[in-house]
């Protein structure tokens, strides 16, 4: 169990938390949610004692061990992958290292023998003899192949480093587990494995995630950061959303009733206060009016941008035709004879573990890359808008956001138009005058979505558009794409996003392409798809041999 008492933290005049009291009990998984900047990651750092609050204390049960998903990918560069995982249980790792050093001594003496007996007892008590097999299970579930497990961390690419650090946090069954964005860099298969792992996990879990499906699958409770406080709801993210919306509507309705009653009383008093026969009733109603109070509605930090894509014209019959498309990156084939015909009303989700293949395809469709061979033909009625996964080149300038958006606005529109548009995307007041060079990742994404909305395109190509967005912005984008009447081609690791937007699924595997006109949930459960996927992966592995 872990608890926080009277936690207060402020940065200057900005109060993040004020007298927060909360208890997290064993056997439960708490989803910590809140708008960007509300303090989710900061609160996890307070719980892990990485940050000291201005006031208050954090308590953990006696002899309980806490594990934290580390964000520093370079912290263990000189360690092997296996040892990095074991270091999730630092005391076990220390015992293991001392034990190995003792047994390696050429002059092993009686004192060493006594010490080794102590270490063996501690090692057994901590399940040290199962450590290697447990680490292997974790690494396998998170998609780290066996050939990487004895390499040094510095030899791994960034995505695999993150997976190893996640395995480190999960190792050794910690009593309290703190996870900040654990699904980042995971494919759908690894996310499903993590969901199953946390569902079976018997101790306390506190997790921050922007993946709504993940939160729904693993969370027994939702801890909502807003108004400088944390309120715990029993239930997953969907339950919190409906419960919080119901509470808000109830407060609004109660205030509206009070306001309507106050208006009615004021009108009566105004009409009859000078009427002698009604003066007594007017006085009585004035006393009632004085007793009416509107319940304070604090300003929430949770805000939803206005995201709506309006095509200027409907698409014709020919949308997109791709024939024999091939492309190699650094000498490695990422697309090989790829064919695709896009039909009217298609909303295609590209899935699978090869993100480079998907990004390369989208860059070719956007005209940013030339294929090695094959043809791409867009219909004559099609205007397209592209959201790239990497957007830093768009903001490598000294413009403020008003000037930046002005580059893509209609030539007849000026600063007022840009300010209004930015305001709907949550850049209000001075926020609209910020320099491009200082905005955050989530703010960049909202700018790029604004750019897309201004095109009036009737075909959208989006590569991981939910990266860096908070839950509110993801929800707004999700709803905007559901409402969009034309063609969408997109890639996303957000399960809920794919499930609610796509009506056609294309999976690029090492051995071929699986193409099904169906929703994502049906696709995941389709036995024919599973059989075809297994054949493609098995056939590719044999070809490699």
Explain what you see:
The chain is α/β, with parallel strands linked by helices and 545 residues long. It has 3 domains: 2-240, Rossmann fold (3-Layer(aba) Sandwich), CATH 3.40.50.300; 241-291; 320-393 and 451-544, P-loop containing nucleotide triphosphate hydrolases (Rossmann fold), CATH 3.40.50.300. It is built from 18 helices and 18 strands. Strands 5-6-7-3-8-9 form a 6-stranded mixed β-sheet, with helices on both faces. Strand 8 (221-226) and strand 9 (229-234) form a beta hairpin. The longest helix has 36 residues, at 237-272. The protein is globular. The relative contact order is 0.09. The model has no long low-confidence stretch (mean pLDDT 89).
Overall shape: it is globular
- Tell me what the CATH architecture of the largest domain is: 3-Layer(aba) Sandwich
CATH homology superfamily name of the largest domain:
P-loop containing nucleotide triphosphate hydrolases
Q: What is the arithmetic mean of pLDDT? A: 89
How much is the radius of gyration in Å? Answer: 29 Å
CATH topology descriptor of the largest domain = Rossmann fold
Strand line-up in the sheet with most strands: 5-6-7-3-8-9
Strands, total number: 18
In short:
This protein has 545 residues and is α/β, with parallel strands linked by helices. It has helices at residues 40-47, 81-86, 90-103, 110-125, 131-141, 158-170, 188-200, 212-218, 237-272, 279-291, 355-365, 401-406, 415-424, 441-453, 471-483, 495-501, 520-525, 527-544, and strands at 2-11, 14-24, 29-33, 55-60, 66-68, 176-180, 204-208, 221-226, 229-234, 320-329, 332-342, 347-351, 373-378, 384-387, 459-463, 487-491, 504-509, 512-516. The protein folds into three domains: 2-240, Rossmann fold, CATH 3.40.50; 241-291; 320-393 and 451-544, P-loop containing nucleotide triphosphate hydrolases (Rossmann fold, 3-Layer(aba) Sandwich).
């Amino acid at each position: 169990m872990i608890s926080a008492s009277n936690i207060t933290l402020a940065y200057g005049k900005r109060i993040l938390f004020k007298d927060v009291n909360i208890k997290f009990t064993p056997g439960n998984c708490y989803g910590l949610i809140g708008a960007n900047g509300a303090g989710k990651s900061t609160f996890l750092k307070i719980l892990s004692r990485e940050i000291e609050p201005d006031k208050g204390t954090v308590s953990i049960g006696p002899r309980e061990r806490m594990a934290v998903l580390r964000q520093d990918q370079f912290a263990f560069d000189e360690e092997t992958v296996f040892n990095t995982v074991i270091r999730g249980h630092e005391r076990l790792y220390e015992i293991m290292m001392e034990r190995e050093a003792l047994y390696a001594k050429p002059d092993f003496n009686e004192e060493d023998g006594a010490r080794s007996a102590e270490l063996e007892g501690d090692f057994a008590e901590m399940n040290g003899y199962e450590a290697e097999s447990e680490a292997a299970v974790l690494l396998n579930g998170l998609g780290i192949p066996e050939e990487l497990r004895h390499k040094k961390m510095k030899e791994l690419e960034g995505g695999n480093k993150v997976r190893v650090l996640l395995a480190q946090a999960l190792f050794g069954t910690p009593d309290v587990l703190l996870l900040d964005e654990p699904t980042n860099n995971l494919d759908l298969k690894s996310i499903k494995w993590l969901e199953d792992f946390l569902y079976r996990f018997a101790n306390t879990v506190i997790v921050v995630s922007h993946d709504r499906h993940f939160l729904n699958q693993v969370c027994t409770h939702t801890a909502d950061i807003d108004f400088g406080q944390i309120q715990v709801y029993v239930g997953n993210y969907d339950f919190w959303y409906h419960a919080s919306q119901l509470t808000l509507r109830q407060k609004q309705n109660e205030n509206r009733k009070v306001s309507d009653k106050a208006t009615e009383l004021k009108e009566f008093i105004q009409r009859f206060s000078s009427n002698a026969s009604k003066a007594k009733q007017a006085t009585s109603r004035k006393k009632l009016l004085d007793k009416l109070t509107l319940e304070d509605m604090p300003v929430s930090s949770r805000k939803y941008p206005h995201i709506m894509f309006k095509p200027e014209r409907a698409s014709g019959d020919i949308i997109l035709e791709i024939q024999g498309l091939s492309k190699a990156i650094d000498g490695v084939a990422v697309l090989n004879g790829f064919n695709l015909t896009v039909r009217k009303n298609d909303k295609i989700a590209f899935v699978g573990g090869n993100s480079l293949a998907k990004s390369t395809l989208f860059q070719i469709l956007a005209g940013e890359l030339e294929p090695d061979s094959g043809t791409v033909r867009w219909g004559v009625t099609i205007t397209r808008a592209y959201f790239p996964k990497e957007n830093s080149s768009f903001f490598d300038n000294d413009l403020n956001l008003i000037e930046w958006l002005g580059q893509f606005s209609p030539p007849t529109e000026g600063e007022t138009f840009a300010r209004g548009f930015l305001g709907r995307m949550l850049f209000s007041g001075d926020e609209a005058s910020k320099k491009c060079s200082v905005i955050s990742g989530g703010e960049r994404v909202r700018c790029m979505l604004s750019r897309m909305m201004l095109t009036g395109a009737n075909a959208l190509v989006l590569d991981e558009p939910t990266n860096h967005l908070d839950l509110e912005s993801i929800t707004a984008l999700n709803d905007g794409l559901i409402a969009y009447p034309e063609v969408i081609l997109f890639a996303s690791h957000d399960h809920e996003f794919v499930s609610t937007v796509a009506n056609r699924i294309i999976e690029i595997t090492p051995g071929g392409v699986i193409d099904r006109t169906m929703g994502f949930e049906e696709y995941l459960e389709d036995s024919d798809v599973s059989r075809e996927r297994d054949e493609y992966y098995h056939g590719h592995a044999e070809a490699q041999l």
